């Protein structure tokens, strides 16, 4: 993707603006501890930057598409083994099926994945997954919100900024 670097750069710039707002919130007493400020800032930078490149997951030549081709089956295998307690062969079959579904059912570039609905859906999925991992409602909702914000930064850059 010729604009991948620009999308990631815009996500980093947007996340730095959010970190600045968090720092101001900390100084005003809205964020109680420096540890909370650090954690929220770290998750903001990671999720906004990831979200700013995530809509290009539907482009077969984008690096993020290739990364998710590995992550999706890997996550399905891990969930099958650990959470569902299935044997290794059945878990591998689930991973292969997930890879086939991921590669064959992904919509064309700039279709559903390039919509605000997909950004909100992605943020919600991240919030649910992180809540199940960390157990912190505030951190998981914050992460989902930041991913959605980064997603919207990507959409705005695609539609309104000429390069």
Brief rundown of the structure:
The chain is mainly α. The chain has helices at 4-27, 34-53, 63-83, 88-105, 116-134, 137-160. The protein contains 6 helices and no strands.
What report would you give on this structure?
This protein is an all-alpha fold. The chain has 2 domains: 1-60 and 117-163, no CATH class; 63-105, no CATH class. It is built from 6 helices and no strands. The protein has helices at 4-27, 34-53, 63-83, 88-105, 116-134, 137-160. Helix 1 (4-27) packs antiparallel against helix 2 (34-53). The chain is flat and about 55 Å long. The two termini are 13 Å apart. 29% of the residues are buried.
Largest sheet: none
* Alpha-carbon distance between the two ends: 13 Å
How many helices in DSSP terms?
A: 6
What is the number of domains? 2
Helix content: over 70%
Overall mean confidence score, pLDDT:
85
**Gyration radius from CA atoms, angstroms:** 17 Å
- The stretches of 5 or more residues where confidence is low (pLDDT under 50) are none
Based on helices, strands and strand pairing, what is the structural class? mainly alpha
Order of helices and strands: HHHHHH
Question: In one word, what is the shape?
Answer: flat
Which range does the strand content fall in?
under 5%
Number of strand segments:
0
